[in-house]
Specification:
370 residues; mainly alpha; two-stranded antiparallel ribbon; 14 helices; globular; disordered N terminus
């Protein structure tokens, strides 16, 4: 949901109050599911389980259950969230024709790139490195969009100062972590990523990384001070889901590329994205049918169109991330190169497509998001 997090978004508009006096539902799905899927709850719960000593490669019942959760989470959440963008692009009436054309062209370009990448280790490494950098910007930007959604749903209109602190806090978090990847080998080199070595590009001088960290700290303190001052003046409280989202994305981004980071990619970023795209899908579908969905979406979960939506995403995700690579490997392509190139190209297609469709300044998009 990168486009929703457009850092150049000029003005945060309050959603209109409905005729019956009820504003937008304050949650994307439901309170419990939002805390789990959108605010990082699943990521923290699973990290807590692992911190207690339960490991997915163990032989205890707890380990087997954890391994099952991680496997099915990857299948139903991680691998499904990419295809959700394609549904958003090609099914939604709010997608401009130009965007669809660009998405198709970008896909053809990446197919060509993937062809050469599978024949050259150096190209495969470059594609992987670019994707590892881009993913930071992608999910940090998505976080900003989620924060805006929660603020608009609760009629918490950020002032220019508050929005500035928030934007630069997230920007500098992103800059710090990306600079760290090119400054410290421990954060920029991977001996085996899906079986392939990812080289370290650097080192850069230390001062840009530390400058970004100081700026991030300053903006964090400034944001907290501005929001506390606002509370004492107006008694308005910054939405709790937004606070938890900021904490989760900071912990995820500051972590090393370890098990916690991998948990976060699936059970923070991907789950968050699926929650928003699912909400958008069912709300737009209802609008096309002539009625508006209000309140919790819990009643929609087990309807045929919802189950079909999730099944289709999971199936397409499986075919693209598992079926396609295995087919190529059986035809002689090196497995590490094949897996990394397909991973990189699928994600780069997702990142750019996502950036083009989620424009909160578009009234039609904003109404379905909020």
């Amino acid at each position: 949901m990168q486009g929703t997090a457009d850092f150049n978004f000029a003005e945060q508009k309050k959603p209109k109050i409905s005729a019956d006096g009820a504003g937008p539902h304050p949650w994307i799905l439901t309170p419990a599911l939002d805390y789990l899927f959108c605010c990082g709850g699943l990521m923290w719960l699973l990290a807590g389980v692992e911190a207690l000593g339960v490991k997915p490669d163990g032989h205890s019942y707890a380990s087997i259950i954890l391994a099952g959760i991680l496997f099915w989470g990857t299948m139903l959440i991680g691998e499904a969230h990419g295809p959700a963008t394609l549904v958003r692009v090609f099914r939604s009436r709010t997608t401009p024709k130009l965007v669809r054309t660009i998405v198709i062209i970008w896909g053809l370009v990446l197919i060509l790139v993937a062809y050469f990448g599978m024949q050259n280790v150096a190209i495969a490494q470059v594609l992987t490195k670019i994707t590892m950098v881009w993913v930071i910007q992608h999910y940090v930007a998505q976080t900003f969009g989620i924060i805006l959604i929660y603020c608009m749903k609760r009629h918490f209109s950020l002032s220019k100062l508050e929005r500035g602190f928030l934007q630069w806090q997230l920007r500098l978090l992103m800059f710090f972590v990306i600079l760290r990847m090119f400054t410290l080998p421990a954060y920029g080199y991977m001996a085996k990523f899906i079986g392939m070595e990812v080289p370290f590009w650097g080192p850069l001088p230390f001062w840009p990384m530390y400058l970004a960290l100081v700026g991030f700290t300053f903006c964090t303190i400034g944001l907290v001070a501005a929001l506390v001052w606002r509370y004492f003046r107006t008694k308005e409280i910054f939405p709790l889901p937004a606070i938890l989202t900021i904490i989760s994305v900071t912990a995820l981004t500051m972590s090393q590329r370890d098990a916690f980071f991998l948990l976060g990619l699936t059970f923070y970023h991907s789950s968050q994205y699926l929650a928003v795209t699912y909400s958008y899908f069912v709300r737009e579908r209802a609008k096309e049918a002539g009625h508006e969905l209000k309140g919790s979406l819990a009643k929609e979960f087990f309807k045929a169109h919802s189950l079909g939506y999730i099944f289709a995403l999971a199936l397409v995700g499986f075919l693209l991330t598992t079926g396609l690579p295995q087919g190529l490997v059986k035809n002689g392509v090196s497995e590490p190169i094949c897996l990394t190139v397909i991973w990189a190209c699928l994600n780069m297609h997702h990142y750019l497509s996502d950036a083009l469709v989620w424009r909160i300044r578009d009234q039609g998009v904003r109404e379905l998001l909020v």
